[in-house]
Amino acid sequence: MNLITILDIVASIINKSPSLQSGDNEIIAKLASDISVYTLDNRLIFTKLKQSEPITKELLETPYLLAPYIFFTYKSNRWFAEEANHVEMWNRMVDFKEYEDSIRIALVGFDSVSNPNFKVNIETRKQTLIVRVV
Asked: What is the pLDDT of residue 100?
């Protein structure tokens, strides 16, 4: 899956869109300018570290392997993204108290998407909106 698709899915959740395609270029641009990502061995890595590759058209459109858990947080007028490879780490991220006054969106299972017509289940845990591929 490519980065532009992930950002569009997050934008659609923010906009409460009935589909996973928001078409909201303003939110997608804000997400792309705020988050930090880099590539390694055909993987797209989401990190809270300031080190990031510049968001280019190629980076947005190239399909990459993803972590099974990707976590977006909006706090203090800025988006952050990080990932987890294990459910235990992801559970700690969801339960972390620092983010109580923020918008939190977790993407689960997008690493296994191969069909463009995939379906998701949306649930809430604590104050996190969880978007899970079914």
From this structure: 63
